[in-house]
Amino acid sequence: MQDFPLYFQLGITHILDWQGYDHILFVMALCGVYGWQDWRKLLILVTAFTVGHSLTLALSVFNLIPVSVSLIEFLIPVTIVITSLVNILRKNQNKSSWLLTYLLTLLFGLIHGMGFSNYLKSLLGSQVAGPLLAFNVGLEVGQLAIVFITLTLSFLVLNGFRASRREWNLFLSSAIFGIALTMSLERLGALFS
């Protein structure tokens, strides 16, 4: 496990890389309807996402599931579109809506994990388990940083500009929806070319 810090740092760097901003957008979209008082719910959601992508990341790194890069690259922004749309259409936060978000987050984590697999496969040598764990722990820490920044931004907007939570959610989720829809349409063309 002497390489733990290296792969941990790679996980953080990978999730926070602005060139791969689709993962940042997904985590921000998850935060859209939540505030600081909901940090436990967000921690559970982010961890579900990590569990999902850790599972498929491990399976694809060990070549146990096939990965179609163009299909996964198309599906990743689709997960962001759906998450944003659920936020926009959500009228209230009840137990069933939170459960739906949890299940979607877990499912979407499976898809995002396959997106990481080619990147990680190219870095791994013969030792896989330790580096895979370190990479996933780094991803989780990076995602929590995105949650922290998004919740802080939400707090500032809600309190500084006196926006309602619904207005903020609509603004943030609609912006993310637009960006992700554009990405989906661009990648759809690549899928069939």
TrEMBL record:
<dbReference type="Pfam" id="PF13795">
    <property type="entry name" value="HupE_UreJ_2"/>
</dbReference>
<protein>
    <submittedName>
        <fullName>HupE/UreJ family protein</fullName>
    </submittedName>
</protein>
<feature type="transmembrane region" description="Helical">
    <location>
        <begin position="71"/>
        <end position="89"/>
    </location>
</feature>
<feature type="transmembrane region" description="Helical">
    <location>
        <begin position="132"/>
        <end position="158"/>
    </location>
</feature>
<keyword id="KW-1133">Transmembrane helix</keyword>
<feature type="transmembrane region" description="Helical">
    <location>
        <begin position="20"/>
        <end position="36"/>
    </location>
</feature>
<keyword id="KW-0812">Transmembrane</keyword>
<feature type="transmembrane region" description="Helical">
    <location>
        <begin position="170"/>
        <end position="192"/>
    </location>
</feature>
<feature type="transmembrane region" description="Helical">
    <location>
        <begin position="43"/>
        <end position="65"/>
    </location>
</feature>
<feature type="transmembrane region" description="Helical">
    <location>
        <begin position="101"/>
        <end position="120"/>
    </location>
</feature>
<keyword id="KW-0472">Membrane</keyword>
<dbReference type="InterPro" id="IPR032809">
    <property type="entry name" value="Put_HupE_UreJ"/>
</dbReference>
